[in-house]
């Protein structure tokens, strides 16, 4: 849980609540912020490809990735050079992908071996924990009038402290019954219609959620300039992700694909809201709907992947993560293109909503073939 909190809450999304601060202090434009976000998503894509192609021990990938995130985040505070920012955000993206992929595989194997697969939801709740924590920390730092540089340094220091805290867990000897998790490259991907559908639909999820996940606080700042108000949008997003993953894990729905499809439909509604209704209420509702579904979708996708790929799912997980990253890359780039043509973020949000709905429809079409899969079984 803590590893994913660092990987996603800080390595991926600390930039989102800090963007308004960077806009004020460094006159960073929305276009400039889009390129920084794109660099991180490109790194995430590269990290997924490396995880797919290069065998790395799970412990080394997780601990090394978390350490790289901490150092890259610290570096954001120690330089004001824009090209260096791009490089540091890309490095954080590579490391985040490694931690996400290897923690998912490592933990799923250990939970299945322990006969407690339902605890998987608590692990993925770490993403919401990290986002909410980073958002609340940023809100407090804005209240105390900390600079953006100081905020980056503080979050980087927290990341490195967490690495020290979790290191003994990942260095512990893996039980024989779960040792397959340490050898993550033993099973090739079986490319069939089902696996290709999962990969393609995960790409639509990445494309759909990334614009609000990048610009939600910045959009809120345009409506209400008081940081004591607009600063709450990101903690709300993270809290929704935290609560939703725990709730879904507790209910243990029987069909992962239907859960995934329902999540994408709700996310599509949340993504469209700020484009159709320009108010703080719409932005908060968007935060709840998108935040409350994006990790449920990821959790359902990982579980569906393991049901197809078997006990060593890193190959297919890496392919899905790469597809997700491609969607994330295309999201900010399409937003930038629309900004150039005068379409604005509203047009990008509506396009993203349509892509999410299309992915949900494709998942519903495939769902009957996998009806009856239970989380207890996988």
CATH C-level category: Mainly Alpha
Main beta-sheet strand count, sense and barrel state = none
Give the H and E element order.
HHHHHHHHHHHHHH
- CATH topological fold name: Growth Hormone, Chain: A
The CATH architecture can be given as: Up-down Bundle
Contiguous uncertain segments of 5+ residues: 177-186, 369-378
Estimate the global geometry from the Cα principal axes.
globular
Q: Give the amount of beta strand, in percent.
A: under 5%
How many beta-strand segments? Answer: 0
Measured distance between first and last alpha carbons: 20 Å
Give a verbal description of the structure.
The chain is mostly helical. The chain has one domain: Growth Hormone, Chain: A, CATH 1.20.1250.20. It has 14 helices and no strands. It starts with a helix and ends in a 12-residue tail after the last helix.
Question: What keywords describe this structure?
Answer:
Growth Hormone, Chain: A; 378 residues; globular; mainly alpha; disordered C terminus
SSE blueprint:
Blueprint: H1 2-12, H2 15-26, H3 30-53, H4 58-78, H5 82-113, H6 120-143, H7 148-171, H8 193-223, H9 227-230, H10 233-251, H11 256-276, H12 280-309, H13 314-340, H14 344-366
Structure summarized in a few sentences:
The chain is mostly helical. It has helices at about 1-10, 15-25, 30-55, 60-80, 80-115, 120-145, 150-170, 195-225, 225-230, 235-250, 255-275, 280-310, 315-340, 345-365.
């Amino acid at each position: 849980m803590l590893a994913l909190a660092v990987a996603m809450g800080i390595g991926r999304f600390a930039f989102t609540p800090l963007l308004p601060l960077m806009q004020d202090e460094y006159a960073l434009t929305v276009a400039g912020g889009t390129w920084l976000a794109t660099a991180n998503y490109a790194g995430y894509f590269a990290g997924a490809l490396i995880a797919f192609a290069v065998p790395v021990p799970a412990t080394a990938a997780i601990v090394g990735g978390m350490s790289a995130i901490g150092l890259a985040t610290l570096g954001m505070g120690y330089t004001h050079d824009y090209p260096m920012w791009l490089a540091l955000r890309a490095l954080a993206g590579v490391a985040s992908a490694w931690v996400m992929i290897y923690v998912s595989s490592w933990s799923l194997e250990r939970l299945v071996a322990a006969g407690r697969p339902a605890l998987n939801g608590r692990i993925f709740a770490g993403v919401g924990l990290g986002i909410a924590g980073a958002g609340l920390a940023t809100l407090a730092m804005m209240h105390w009038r900390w600079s953006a540089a100081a905020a980056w340094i503080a979050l980087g220091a927290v990341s490195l402290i967490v690495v020290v805290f979790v290191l003994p867990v990942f260095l512990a000897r893996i039980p024989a019954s779960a040792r397959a998790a340490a050898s993550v490259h033993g099973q090739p991907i079986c490319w069939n219609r089902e696996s290709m559908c999962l990969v393609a639909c995960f790409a639509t999820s990445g494309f759909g959620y990334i614009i609000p996940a990048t610009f939600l606080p910045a959009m809120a700042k345009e409506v209400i300039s008081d940081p004591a108000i607009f600063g709450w949008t990101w903690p709300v997003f993270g809290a929704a992700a935290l609560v939703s993953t725990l709730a879904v894990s507790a209910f243990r729905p029987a069909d992962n694909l239907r859960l995934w499809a329902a999540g994408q439909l709700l996310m599509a509604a949340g993504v469209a809201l700020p484009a159709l209704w320009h108010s703080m209420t719409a932005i908060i509702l968007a935060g709840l709907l998108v935040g409350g579904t994006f990790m449920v979708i990821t959790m359902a996708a990982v579980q569906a992947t393991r049901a197809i790929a078997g006990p060593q799912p890193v190959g297919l997980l890496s392919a899905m993560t790469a597809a997700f990253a491609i969607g994330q890359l295309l999201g900010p780039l399409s937003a930038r293109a629309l900004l150039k043509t005068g379409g604005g973020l509203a047009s990008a949000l509506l396009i993203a909503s349509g892509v999410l709905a299309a992915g949900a429809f494709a998942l519903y079409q495939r769902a009957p073939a996998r009806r009856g899969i239970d989380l207890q079984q996988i």
